[in-house]
Amino acid sequence: MFELFSIGFEQILHFNVLLTVFIGVLGGVIAGAIPGFTITMAVVLALPFTFGMEPTQGVATIMGVSIGGLSGGLISAALLGIPGTPSSVATTFDAFPMVKNGQPGKALSIGIWASFFGTLISTVALVTIAPQIAAFAMKIGPWEFFSLIFFSLTIIAGLTGDTIEKGLLAGLFGLALSTVGIDPMTGVSRFTFGLYFLKAGVPFLTVLIGMFAMSRLLTEIEMRSFINDKKNKLDKNYDSKFKLDIFESLMIVLKQPINLFRSSFIGAFIGAVPGAGASISNILAYDQAKKGSKHPEKFGTGIADGIIASESGNNSTAGGGLITTIALGIPGDAVGAVLLSALMIHGVTPGPLLIRNNPEIIGAIYVSLVIASFFMIIIQFFGAKFFVKIVDIPKHVLVPVVLALCLIGSYVLHNRITDLYILLIMGLVGYFLVKYKYPLTPIILGVILGPMAEVNLRRALITDPNPMLFFTRPISLFFILIAVVSVFFSIRQSSKMKKNKA
Q: What's the whole-model pTM score?
């Protein structure tokens, strides 16, 4: 392990390499902060620039973009209440209320430190237990994957707010949206109602932007604060002096080691499962932090615990996603797939022999994760004073700009005009759901997890129609049992909160 680090430092500690990693982190932060401009898109755009680089420099640059993108989603999630990337959905739950309570600097600082430590913890996991986790991940077949998704869907019960019924209905609506389009197994059109553009399905990113961004913008337009910005700022008690509180926020994060390590290990594990990704670990880490908290009723009001869990959970997938990529040559997520493409372009063969044949590549990956983490906190803390000025922009200027970014982000995903129609429809639906106090997060969760659950359920039944295999296979049974426990704790917490309110 230490030999690989020493080799990696020899490869990375050059001015030109450090410069490209820094630029990659900066580009990732900017891309992550733009609603709809995903980390995958940023990494894909950065890939052509690495063609003329040495393999170690190209790999380090891509890792920089990935780390920056995972952290960049915090900016728009905290300051606008709009997740910049799907991996920052849960960050909006407490970061945005904390900003509205007049503490934008504290919200950003806590999120930045949580992102930093989450990346470092996942790097340690990558270096020390990569073979073991990779071997465990390879035992996950369609039965285990469906049970894992089933467990993830039980999070809906913990994200429903005051009424579980409304949350479950919202989750079912999200699952229904995920079935629109071409059947992934048979190729038959489903629920398209004769509309050709629906054959492509309803992209989850379009639903995310529509539900969160469009509905929030419509709400802002409806409020009188859209006209009277000065009064609105006084009412919301924004701190115009902006105190960043770097060291105070660091101590807040370090005083929650259980929350930090639990969320980071959740992110690392989810990252190691091929096809899962940071959008799941972000919400799952938040949910588990809420279940393990002594004061779950404070979650969603601007509590530091929620920011720490969500940000450390999503950033730790950076190292976790590389576990199967390095150990087995199987990408854990889209970023891992791009990384494998970059390696093959440079003539490096991914797989179990990568560590033996190309130790300089593995060392470069390890070291670039650490260096990119430090570059990330430097860029985030120095740029925070500029980022927070978003709060001071008049809403009659901010709303059209964010709306334009949302439209652009939705369009460039697939270059389809019809996605803009879906975006507007989802925005209107989200607006009315918010008006009637239906939670939006279960819908996003249903749209993201629905296709994975359906495909793996059908694969399992096609392989062997015996449904008891879901309960007789140990790993599958484990996920089902913790799903039942998760639902039990959610119902118990909900009843406690109702009693406290009464």
A: 0.72
